[in-house]
Design goal:
The complex is a heterodimer. By secondary structure, chain A is an alpha/beta fold. Chain A is built from 17 helices and six strands. The termini of chain A are far apart. Chain B has a domain of 67 residues. The chains are: A alpha/beta, B mainly alpha.
Chain lengths: 464, 99
């Protein structure tokens, strides 16, 4: 066998390893092994590529691998679990940028040697450059929004939308010109600039609450960019891996949208949460009174309950209270209380984020459950404790067809015997609507920081 | 359309289907590791980056573009796999604990 057979076979094996790896990611027990299998596939692909005779020079390659490897290692080891969404966002951007630059490099190579690319490779190059650039700049905006550097508010402005359409037209026009008429470097750079601006403009209007959807979508784009780079190079390993990641991101995007009962176009274009919602005033209005509860009483109802469900939301992550909630849950478990955690799919800031935070705090996997598991027998739950969540427990989603969140799957803690909501104030959540749960007779508000509140309750449980 | 492009499209579409099949089976609990793991896989463009860097010849511009792509792709690959591993160890450690 010659190298020209061995290298593609190596790519085939690594594609198989990626598929098996993702398959194993589907179960908590095999997931770590699956991830390593995929890593092995990547190593194989890299070694296979290094055997390629097109590669004449290794100094720069070694420098690049060493620098990138070191930065990646440090980032992976030091990142806080609460900052995972930011990290994934920035990695999406890097992946997209790398794929885009591969397309750019190939374009330069073709112009330098044969003059003009064929229509086929021209299309691949333009698509790869476009997706890569949009992924890069879009991911950095998403990173900025998640990190709070850029306002998380949905910026709904017709000028932004108009500019985005203009940039899209410029990009497409430039691509058609470059493929159909002549090769021109200045126009090519212009296409890259327009795509980068386009990436900024499509993510800027999206509100902070919708970031999980955006991160998932950009994840998909980074895969599609890799697939496009695969078309550019005629390399099936890139096409397969890119398609797998593209599919993964799309599925997660659609799961997120479904969990919010909204369509993708609604998330991308409607600037949710920026407009004052109709129906239901903002915050506490008029005669409605939310009953309060203190640490001692909370400890009493929790300590003598038999079924308790915790509903953690993003407020828990902000307060870094995942360890405190587990300590309280452990004390209750020790008293014979059956404790579960019910995690809404959009809790946290990326798909599955809350589960990672709870896992970090050593919450047993068996105690984690989904809304479908808890809702049917909510009547038998003695106490539901909502920590730093709001819209995902808003009964309006179920009861009021005119509500902006109507039809969104919720955790129906209003049907529990007692519901305790730990929250800083009565203020509205991301959706910008009042939550009638707070004023229900079986609901008690515990105002304060999630970590403080949980620590106070735990202290009182100790005294029981 | 040439044969290479057609074959590429076949491979792409079929791989998308495999992806859909595999990923719908992943439970929501594991969505974050799935995302960072698949993100690391999208770093496969490291292959392209290696080819651009190593085959740049005398073109300084190509070499710099290749190097930048290589560094970013390597960060994506190494960081992505390691951080996914770190997360999955947290999921795993508790499976051993209750016994």
């Amino acid at each position: 066998m010659t190298l020209s057979t061995i290298i593609p076979l190596a790519y085939l094996v690594s594609a198989v390893l990626f598929i098996l790896g993702i398959k194993r990611l589907g179960h908590p027990e095999t997931a770590a092994g699956g991830n390593r299998l995929a890593g092995l596939g990547m190593l194989l692909a890299i070694i296979g590529t290094l055997l390629d005779q097109q590669i004449l020079e290794f100094t720069w390659i070694i420098a690049g691998l060493a620098a990138g490897g070191l930065i990646g290692l440090v980032m992976a080891k030091t990142v806080k679990m609460t900052a995972m969404p930011e990290m994934v966002a920035i990695f999406n951007g890097f992946g997209g940028a790398a794929s885009g630059m591969v397309a750019v490099g190939e374009y330069l190579r073709i112009i330098g040697t044969s003059g003009a690319p064929s229509v086929d490779s021209g299309v691949s190059i333009m698509v790869g450059t476009l997706i890569g650039s949009v992924t890069l700049s879009g991911s950095f905006i998403a990173y900025g929004k998640l990190k709070g550097i850029i306002s998380g508010n949905a910026i709904s402005n017709p000028i932004v939308r108009l500019l985005a359409i203009l940039m899209a037209l410029i990009t497409v026009g430039a691509a058609v010109y470059l493929i159909g008429f002549e090769t021109s470097l200045p126009i090519f750079w212009g296409l890259i600039a327009a795509s980068l601006i386009l990436g900024v403009l499509v993510v800027i209007p999206i509100g902070g609450a919708d970031m999980p959807v955006v991160v998932a979508l950009l994840n998909s784009y980074s895969g599609l960019a890799a697939a496009a780079a695969g078309f550019v190079l005629g390399n099936n390993a890139l096409i397969i891996s890119g398609a797998l990641v593209g599919a993964s991101g799309l599925i997660l995007t659609s799961i997120m949208c479904r969990a919010m009962n909204r369509s993708l176009s609604n998330v991308l274009f409607s600037a949710f949460g920026s407009t004052a919602a109709s129906g239901g005033g903002r915050g506490a209005d008029g005669d409605k009174v939310a009953a309060e509860i203190g640490a001692e009483d909370s400890a009493m109802v929790l300590g003598y309950a038999s079924q308790v469900v915790f509903v953690p939301g993003y407020g828990l992550a902000v307060a870094q209270a995942q360890h405190k909630i587990r300590e309280l849950a452990d004390m209750l478990t020790a008293r014979g209380v059956n404790v579960r955690y019910c995690v809404h799919p959009v809790a946290g800031r990326m798909p599955g984020h809350m589960n990672v935070l709870l896992a970090e705090a050593n919450v047993p996997y068996e105690q984690l459950c989904e809304p479908e598991d808890v809702n049917p027998d909510m009547e038998n739950i003695d106490v539901a404790v909502v920590v730093g969540a709001n819209d995902v427990v808003n009964p309006l989603a179920r009861d009021d067809a005119s509500s902006p969140i109507a039809g969104m799957p919720i955790i129906e803690t209003d049907r529990a015997k007692i519901c305790i909501v730990i929250k800083r104030s009565l203020s509205v959540g991301y959706a910008g609507i009042d939550n009638p749960l707070f004023y229900m007779p079986n609901n008690r508000m515990f105002f304060g920081d999630a970590a403080d509140a949980l620590a106070q309750i735990a202290e009182e449980v100790k005294q029981l | 359309m040439t044969g290479t492009l057609l074959v590429g499209l076949y491979v792409f579409v079929l791989a998308m289907f495999i992806g859909f099949e595999l990923i719908t089976k992943v439970p929501p609990t594991l969505h974050t590791p799935l995302m960072s793991g698949s993100n690391a896989i999208s770093g496969i463009s490291i292959v392209g980056a290696l080819l651009v860097t190593g085959g740049a010849g005398d073109s300084a511009l190509m070499r710099w573009i290749g190097l930048a792509a290589l560094v970013l792709a390597t960060i994506n690959v190494v960081g992505g796999f390691l951080v996914t591993d770190r997360m999955l160890q947290m999921f795993k450690s508790k499976d051993a604990k209750p016994s």
